[in-house]
Amino acid sequence: MSDTAILPPRSGVVARAVDWMIRHPAMFTFLLVLPITLWLGIVYIGSLLALLVQSFYSIDEFSGLVVPEFTLATYAELLRPSNFAIILRTVTMAACVTVASAVIAFPIAYFAARYARGGWKALFYIGVMLPLWSSYLVKVYAWKLVLAKEGILSWAFAKLHLGWLLDAILALPVVGGNSLSVSYTGTFIVFVYIWLPYMIIPVQAALERVPGAMIEAASDLGATPGQSFRMVLLPLALPGIVAGSIFTFSLTLGDYIVPQIIGSGRLFIGQAVYMQQGTAGNIPLAAAFTVVPIAIMGVYLWGARRMGAFDAL
Amino acid sequence: MQAVSFRGVSRHFGTVRAVDDVDLDIADGEFFAMLGPSGSGKTTCLRLIAGFEQPTAGEIAICGEQAAGMPPYRRNVNTVFQNYALFPHMNVRDNVAFGLRVKGIGRAERHCAAEEALAMVELAGFGDRRAAALSGGQRQRVALARALVNKPKVLLLDEPLGALDLKLREQMQEELRRLQRALGLTFVFVTHDQEEALSMADRVAVFAEGRIQQVGTPEDIYRRPASRFVADFVGSSNVLPADFVGVGRAGDWASLRPEDITLDPAGREAEVTSRAYHGRVVKLGLNVAGQGLTMLAPASGDLPRPGDRVGIAWPLEKAHLLGPAT
To answer: Looking at the complex, does the CB of residue B158 fall below 8 Å from at least one CB of chain A?
Structure first.
């Protein structure tokens, strides 16, 4: 034990800097936010702005060179039927994938949040996360085999004497096709499979924060289980569902590998961007295509906020 | 008619007997307190009445109707939860009107009823506020209004004052009594605070280890505890050998309240072992011929210090015989 009440100042540059920062907490905060400000401000927002600027340029039809003059012509090109069909197809797929993910994820997340304890909880986390640890490409190609005409799924349907059901689905217009692996249904199934963990985790986190007493209170006040779900549980879980839907929706909007491997061969936004900036060399159109998901997500979040999705946060 | 009656009710969780063969009658219009240490089964009993738990064995009747097997939403019973459990995504008015909304009552009518209920708990005009923007005491009142607006047969209160500070708690105690009298409702109140139970309730049930140890008026419980546990838990009694106190045979036990012991130079000799100042009174730890006991002395005049020798006495009629040791 030292005899003095106050210890002498510490020596060394680091120690003195630390002591100085304790007396100047604002400096400490500044140093903490500096890296993220640089990262977000320059690397992220900066490149995004560069992209946005590109989308207002156009391409010279004859020379194939980018004309660095501001014009809305590239955006007008997006409205051409062939391009607009790509946007519509992608947005519809993203919306379907998001709704299906939410519906499938909710009961899983609810079980994990409310009933799973100890070992079951560990099993839940491993079960949800494990698919994320393996390569995305391997999983997609595996699904191609599962969904193929001679694949496991059609074999299973045949063995269960449900071959007629599969044929009926494939005979449907638009969503059907020669086999599941070359149909929109197949693209949809694979999208739901690979993005599902991104929905389950936020929904589970949101449900985890809903005290059990809330559901009991609703029931105590006379709400049937259906009413409790609609009026208490769902609104309280909504921030989690919105967070999850941001993942599933935007990941589907931007993906260019799944529809290329599994699907009808018609283009999605991601593939269009890939083609325009690569083989076609039309950077402005690629940039304009990229702005579409950003704009859609912006409108979506604004709408979600207006509807009170974040009120329970 | 009995508002609530339990016949041989048990609730077991695996090998744990949370409630074990309980018989209980709560009269209509009564303010009934369930008192006990944590884990004594009092809260489980409340949850059995509310319907959040179903009995493992036995029968529960609410206003003469069989309740076992009924889900909470089919029971005309409402609960004020320990942490209030207000819905964070609704304002105060919608919280209070929730019970009416799920019953399909129109917006105008239910808002009117909610406003009335809020006025009853002195929160008129708070309808538009968010539940999160209220203080603890105000949230407590909203929870109360939310339950009372449904005009329940029985109101259940699960340690409703536990989270409030002392001043507010005393104020709410009075207010709960006033509301209960004014509405003539049956209140069932769970608490681990014996003072709260004694001061508020018409009758008290003392719980320990899933069983009821004693049911009676606060005075019964305090003056004539049925067991050593009740004597000790309610008002921290001195539980002493009966022959030492002078009221019974050797082998029996008797309870003696600390406030019934007085300082008396002509009485039995005792050594002061500790002293704690409580404002109005002073709590003295005493040693009488190897027997430890505590007394409460008025905090005035010259007070003995630890180590002093004093004389103490107690009127024999204040001692309560508990019978043989259990």
So the answer is: no
pLDDT value of position A313:
53
The pTM (predicted TM-score) of the whole model is 0.82
Q: Which residue from A213, A219, A308 is facing B83, i.e. has the nearest CB?
A: A213
ipTM for the whole complex:
0.85
CATH of the domain spanning A78-312: 1.10.3720.10
**Which stretches of chain B are DSSP H helices?**
42-50, 92-102, 107-120, 136-148, 166-183, 194-200, 218-223, 228-233, 242-245
Element (H, E) at A228: helix A225-228
Other residues' Cβ atoms within 10 Å of the Cβ of residue A241: 23
Contact B260, B241 (CB under 8 A): no
Q: Where are the domains of chain A?
A: 9-44, 78-312
Q: Which residues pair with B276 in a beta bridge?
A: B283
Percentage, residues of chain A above pLDDT 70: 98
State which H helix or E strand residue B283 sits in: strand B281-288
Q: Other CB atoms closer than 10 Å to residue A46's CB: what's the count? A: 12
* A222–chain B Cβ distance below 8 A for any pair: yes
With tokens 């809020």, the residue in question is B118
Task: Give the pLDDT of residue A311.
Answer: 64
Residue A267's φ and ψ, nearest 5 degrees, are -75, 150
DSSP-based three-state secondary structure for B224: coil
Q: Does B78 touch chain A (CB under 8 A)?
A: yes
- The gap between the terminal CA atoms of chain A, to the nearest Å, is 49
Task: Count Cβ–Cβ pairs < 8 Å, chain A vs chain B.
Answer: 65
Name the A residues in 78-107 with CB < 8 Å from any B CB. none
Each residue's pLDDT tens digit, B128-143: 999 888 988 899 999 9
Rounded to whole angstroms, what are the CA distances from A22 to A12, A36, A152, B307?
16, 22, 64, 51
User: Average pLDDT for residues B216-225, to the nearest whole number?
Assistant: 92
User: pLDDT at position A140, please?
Assistant: 93
State whether residue A313 sits within 8 Å of chain B by CB. no
pLDDT tens digits for A257-284? Answer: 999 999 888 999 999 999 888 877 888 9
- pLDDT for res B284: 92
Are A241 and A198 contacting, i.e. CB atoms less than 8 angstroms apart? no
